[in-house]
Each structure stands twice: as structure tokens, then as C-alpha cells.
Amino acid sequence: MSEFSVRWVFQLEIDCVYNVRRHLPAEWHEGCTFIDKKGRRRLEIHPNGDVKVLAGYSWDGCTPKISVFDLVLGTPDGVPNRVTKRPKAYYASLLHDVLYQFLDAGLPLSRAQADKVFLEILTRDRFAPRWIYYGAVRMFGGVFRLFTRRKRRYAGKRIPLLIDGAA
User: Does residue 11 sit in helix, strand or coil?
Assistant: First the structure.
């Protein structure tokens, strides 16, 4: 057996933005930032509903995955998208992971809404087994989240959105 040489599979090179306005409460008009347990900004939600995952964020793609003899076994992330050159589930798994990470830190979305965002992006990126993946996160996402929350001890928090150094 072997171990991952790093704890993640992907690392975001540039900020990623996706609009979730239709999932936010009708009265949403503020912005917020989420920081991880080390105080690093990882996620911003802007007043217009744009969710921005900041460059440097790392995640493991679609889960579960394990490493055996330097081979990654587990849930495939799909073939490369013709436009992005990334696996078709790359952006869906990115948004899903970061939203789940901050569910307990005042994220203005529920787990069901985070799962819907996952399905929307899989659909946008024409990922053929999207309904299977969506069904899996609906059925197992809550249990898997409890396991990873305990294992990783996220302890992130929500703070006001800072734009150009101002609150």
C-alpha cells in the first residue's frame, strides 16, 4: 500500500467564480468571506450571488478515493472537458467541496442547495453520469460530511466580505 504524497488531488490555480443567486435567501444583499482554521481566505460570496473560490484552494475531486500502490482508486472525475481541459466533474467537485466545508460556519446555503449547485455544474459541463453522482451526494453526502468534518476538524468561520481592503 502507499499513501498520497499530498492530501489533495487538485489545487486551484486561479480564482473560480460561479453565481448561486437563485439558491440564496431572497433578502440576501450582503457579502461574506469564509476563512479556514489557519485563517486563510478560501471562499467569498458577493452581494450579487457570485461565489468565488480563491486560488490555492485544494480538494480531492469526487470522493471517495484511496491510493493503492501509487494508483488512485475511487470515484472518477470524468474525461477532460473539451473547453476547460479539466475533468468534467472538476468544477462541480470544487464548488461542492468548498460549500460543504463551510456549511457549519454560517454558509447561507443548505446541504441540499450545495448538492443542487453540484448537479447544475455537472449538467453545464455535460457530465453523462450526473444523475448518479447527484443521487450519491444526496444519499451519502450527509454521512460522508460527518466523517470528514470529524477527521479534518474544519473549524472555519464567516467574516465580512473585504473588497480592496475595506469591510
Answer: strand
Adjacent-strand bridge partners of 51 = 18, 45
Instruction: State which amino acid sits at residue 157.
Output: K
Q: Indicate yes or no: pTM above 0.85.
A: yes
pLDDT tens across 33-88, in order?
999 989 999 999 999 999 999 999 999 899 888 888 888 888 989 999 999 999 99
Grid cell locating 156: 472555519
Question: Residues 100, 33, 135, CA angle at the centre, nearest 5°?
Answer: 20
Gap between the Cα atoms of 42 and 2, Å rounded: 29
Where do the domains of the chain lie? 10-160
3-class DSSP state of 79: coil
Distance CA 98, CA 92 (A): 10
**128: Cα within 13 Å, side-chain hemisphere:** 4
CA torsion through residues 15, 94, 98, 109, sign: positive
Pairwise CA distance, residues 21 & 18, whole Å: 9
Other Cβ atoms less than 10 A from the Cβ of 164: the count is 4
